[in-house]
Amino acid sequence: MDIEKIRKDFPILSRIVRDRPLVYLDNAATTQKPSAVIEAISGLYRNYNANVHRGVYLLAEEATQAYEDSREAVRRFINAGSTEEVVFTRNATEALNLVAYTWADANIRAGDEIIVTIMEHHSNYVPWFRLARRKGAVIKIVPSRKDGELDMDAFGSMLSDRTKLVGIAHMSNVFGTINPVREMVSLAHTRGAAVVVDGAQSAPHMKIDVRGMDCDFFALSGHKMLGPAGIGVLYAKSSYLKSMEPFMSGGEMILRVTLEDVVYNDLPWKFEAGTPNYEGAIGLKAAIEYLEALGMDTVEAYERELTEHALRSMKTVPDIFLYGPSDPAKKGGIIAFNIKGVHSHDIGTILDSEGIAIRAGHHCAQPLMIDCGVSAMARASFYFYNTEQEIDMLVKALKKAKEMFGHVA
Amino acid sequence: MDIEKIRKDFPILSRIVRDRPLVYLDNAATTQKPSAVIEAISGLYRNYNANVHRGVYLLAEEATQAYEDSREAVRRFINAGSTEEVVFTRNATEALNLVAYTWADANIRAGDEIIVTIMEHHSNYVPWFRLARRKGAVIKIVPSRKDGELDMDAFGSMLSDRTKLVGIAHMSNVFGTINPVREMVSLAHTRGAAVVVDGAQSAPHMKIDVRGMDCDFFALSGHKMLGPAGIGVLYAKSSYLKSMEPFMSGGEMILRVTLEDVVYNDLPWKFEAGTPNYEGAIGLKAAIEYLEALGMDTVEAYERELTEHALRSMKTVPDIFLYGPSDPAKKGGIIAFNIKGVHSHDIGTILDSEGIAIRAGHHCAQPLMIDCGVSAMARASFYFYNTEQEIDMLVKALKKAKEMFGHVA
Amino acid sequence: MSLEELFKEIIIEHYQHPKNHGHIEHPDARSEGSNPLCGDEIQMELLFEGDRIKDVMFTGNGCSISQSAASLMTEAIKGRTVAEARRLMEEYKNMLQGNDYDAGMLGDLEALSDVKKFPARVKCASLSMAVLDQALQQKK
Amino acid sequence: MSLEELFKEIIIEHYQHPKNHGHIEHPDARSEGSNPLCGDEIQMELLFEGDRIKDVMFTGNGCSISQSAASLMTEAIKGRTVAEARRLMEEYKNMLQGNDYDAGMLGDLEALSDVKKFPARVKCASLSMAVLDQALQQKK
Ligand SMILES: Cc1ncc(COP(=O)(O)O)c(C=O)c1O
Ligand SMILES: Cc1ncc(COP(=O)(O)O)c(C=O)c1O
Q: What is the per-residue pLDDT across B350-402, written as a single tens digit (0 to 9) for each?
């Protein structure tokens, strides 16, 4: 991997922030875009923009083709069996809500149980929380162990014939933990429960194989994997999609409307009401092609090296506490931490003054914050365009932060 | 209005299609984008891309500011009272579904009545149809008169104390009819019914004043008004938004999540779950600024001239039938038609071979097709970058189509 | 890509004066289909005699391509055995997909060969094939 | 924009050794608030004597700006009349918004004047003002 060449593909990486070169370490929030993605978008609007699925003219054919080609690119990227199973949404959040409003709404009843992990992002927790309230169902939470991994024994003993749905973050956006989804899916399936995997953090960073995983639903967000904002994906087994009522209704998702009746469109369009974000899909395709050209194995291996380096060097900051697994083989490039005596929000500001972008706060994972006994954490998260030097700059700035707050105490 | 200068702002308008300059007359489906919009998008990704509302670093502040500035631009554009009342969605369709899943779901009961017009796009019909099915409510349809305008007498006599919701297309995407929404709103309000105005076709072409109109909900799509795909708006009176449950749930729309409870965020963010399409919003802001610089009055006046010219010259095509009002003061720049002996789909192909893009089909308005006794229509629709010469080319090509199919019969 | 390739005279002729248009009194099989986006609709009725398609009639409405294809298709299969009809449909599909095909077998249906140059119209040309396929499946 | 402007020594001092931190046994007013995105939390308790704020204490957790602001704010208002406290809050708001303000009135609170150069942090500095405002509204 030629990191210098790669960095040149990302125009924003040469931006100067606060008189310093930008060090962007908030990749779990969103990623930067290579020129190929930016140009795919402007290319659409300069050359062949038209509403998809509707026109009988050349522009519309070209735009429709590009939109559907993106669906095929997603199918390949996550190894789905068919493009029927690939529904475009705004983001992972909408993908998860789609499942809550359709399959789960129709299939979950009072007394049923929904199991989620303590590591869930609000987007894979609040929809189930609200559904459970509405239906009188019960939410159970798989705890994590001291080492930042899920307590699989607890999971095993929570599963029962009342379990209807299991929601799992494939990769935690706080701990970085890569959860054993394949094993959890097969355990859940023995109880007849459906499994929703939140792949928002995993899809950008590792090879995804939804068929190998055998999950029933899988959600991802394009903006976290080089793609534009406003495009996400719900993968669902076609057996599920077929049985489900549509989510939103309007143009595009129907075959026929009379005053007496409505006939829905085929998969996957039945779930895509209104003009889709075809621009987003076309940008996402360019993002996927960029990732495929690099190779997801390469991405994963490089990021593991970065993570090892980060875990090693961040430990040298006085009074730092690193959350999540300390074994880099068990996690992705996400490191949440706190420094005693320096609030994460202050760390964020101090780092920003050096051009270093990290995140501070609850990371939309308040149940996990509560579980860790804190209200906020700082978090650095990497992508393949980051370097060890950038991590060294981070560590140096963290030491400075500690000093600023240390010299008085 | 310097039309030559304006056309230069739209890179796609110099595209050659089928060896001819593109004549784009499918603006009711989606509009083309000026360089200012394309550059607003690439500028974001080149210079200040970051997830909004979350970061404590400069990029995130800039992106958040730009995103919220767009909300203010929308507020101004439609004359809403506050940015609290401006919710970003994917498109008009999602905006309408949001109302169906929240306010309408909570307030419409068995036996209640929903009134919509015969001119509705599927996006302002199917959501209410499904809701009515689910609830046992009744849908009533306001018919149109022979002249393509709504039958206001029928509307008046349909209204009753059972009416809970009235759905109105501000401008029909088939007839082009501009419906008397202000009058309809005030009639509906005397019965205590809420009014949803579908502004997908009106917002791009005329001055919108939601406060003057006094509607309770108003939906629009960015891509139909120079903005990118994937961004739309729901305006709703804050009194409604306050009383409504959220639609989707996840990150961004909550204030606090514990295992026992969830507290929702303030307006409007309560209705924006997950990472929003901030790129789309930033593109939409550039679109609105472009329109404001032209002036919506100028846009409307210019398009009225085009429509007059089109109505006059299209009539000279043998055996043509024009749907909708023949008075250009009563309609926007949308002309649906059929030519006896030449199916609209064939018209579409013949025009395409001359580089002219129009639409053929049911226009996602099958109830209106059935009402007109046809299964399809051809439709030409204009925007301010179109010219009378382009309309003349259209007319010439229509005559050619008629000839091709005429010479045998 | 010229319009004359798509709208050949024979196609317009069949569009304006379709063959086998109407109903069969007591059909052995009946099926229908539509292309919702363009509004094309085709209904077909078949009468069998042993293995043979003794008669076939269609009704429908839609564009010149969908309606002329129905007319030409019904002409091509009338009197053939079901197996022959299936082979013919296979060749027709090959033609629309741009593969090699047996022109001799298709006869007048070959008039539709240039539809493949108009991707948006391939669906129109395939509709009657899909409807016919459904009808043939009703034959035990 | 330099860090030293934001994290002045007096701010870090108040963050690490807050004044008026704790509880009042029988407070006349009590209120709380939070900035959910950063997790800052402030609770305040007040004791009145006539028109005067006889005592004020706070608890909370969060960043140096939110906590030192609470400490400085409680120091500034303790012993003042409600009307004076309100005027002070007004000046404080002016300062954070970048308007002119009465420095004499603010005293040590002026240490937070450079927060306005850090837009993401203005919310942190305003939290205790919002909480205090709520508490004062409880006074009849
Ligand atoms: C009147 C009307 N309403 C709603 C819509 C739906 O818009 P969108 O597909 O952008 O959601 C359209 C456009 O197709 C329309 O013309
Ligand atoms: C694990 C996880 N799930 C879901 C989400 C939600 O993604 P989005 O905001 O793109 O819908 C995120 C990102 O914030 C995440 O990290």
A: 999 999 999 999 999 999 999 999 999 999 999 999 999 999 999 999 999 99
Same fold? A3-26+295-404, A50-292? no
Give per-10-residue mean pLDDT for chain B (409 aa).
96 95 98 98 98 90 97 98 98 98 98 98 98 98 97 98 98 98 98 98 98 98 98 98 97 88 93 98 98 98 98 98 97 98 96 96 95 95 98 98 78
Q: Residue B372 to residues B146, C3, C113: CA-CA distances in angstroms?
A: 10, 30, 34
Q: Which amino acid is at A328?
A: P
Whole-angstrom Cα distance, residue A135 to residue D139?
43
3-class DSSP state for residue B36? helix
Q: Report which DSSP code applies to B252.
A: T
Q: D6, D4, D17, D32: which is closest to D132 by C-alpha?
A: D32
Q: How many CB atoms lie within 10 A of CB A182?
A: 14
For C3-137, CATH gives: 3.90.1010.10
Residues of chain B neighbouring A357 (CB-CB closer than 8 A): 50, 55, 57-60
* Residues C42, C126 contacting (CB under 8 angstroms): no
What whole-number distance in Å separates Cα of residue C111 and Cα of residue C105?
Answer: 13
Task: Give the separation between CA C88 and CA C71, rounded to whole angstroms.
Answer: 15
Q: Contacts of residue B254 in chain D, CB cutoff 8 Å?
A: 36
- pTM, two decimals, is 0.97
Q: What is the C-alpha to C-alpha distance for residues D39 and D50, in angstroms, rounded to an integer?
A: 35
- Closest residue to D120, CB basis, from B61, B255, B256: B61
CA atoms within 13 A on the CB side of A381: 32
Q: How far is CA C2 from CA B352, B353, B359, C117, in A?
A: 11, 7, 20, 9
Name the minimum distance, in Å, from the CA of D29 to any CA of chain B: 24
Please state the length of chain D: 140
DSSP-derived 3-state class of residue B154? helix
On the CB side of C1, CA atoms within 13 Å amount to 15
Beta strands in A289-381, from DSSP E residues, in sequence order = 320-322, 334-339, 356-357, 359-361, 377-381
Residue C31: closest CA among C123, C124, C140, C133: C133
A50 and chain C: CB distance < 8 Å anywhere? no
The DSSP code sequence of B191-257 is TT-EEEEE-TTTTTTS---HHHHT-SEEEEEGGGGTPPTT-EEEEE-HHHHHHSPPSS-STTSEEEE
Q: Name the token pair of A86.
A: 């690939």
CB of A169 within 6 A of ligand 2: the answer is yes
Overall fold of domain B50-292: Aspartate Aminotransferase; domain 2 (3.40.640)
Which residues of A are known catalytic residues? 364
Closest listed residue to residue C69, CA positions, set C29, C20, C138: C20
Ligand 1 midpoint to CA B353 (Å): 27
User: How many CB atoms lie under 10 A from the CB of residue A327?
Assistant: 12
* Ligand whose nearest atom lies closest to the CA of A228: 2
Place of tokens 């024994």: A153
Distance separating alpha carbons of residues D11 and D70, to the nearest angstrom: 11
The CA-based angle A360-A361-A362, given to 5 degrees, is 140
* Residue B364 annotated to the active site: yes
Contact list, B47 vs chain A (CB under 8 Å): 11-12, 15
The residue extents of the domains of chain B are: 3-26+295-404, 50-292
List, for residues C8-61, the tens digit of each pLDDT value: 999 999 999 999 999 999 999 999 998 877 778 999 999 999 999 999 999 999
Q: Which CATH class is domain B3-26+295-404?
A: alpha beta
Are B129 and A262 in contact by the 8 Å Cβ rule? The answer is yes
Closest ligand relative to A223 C-alpha: 2
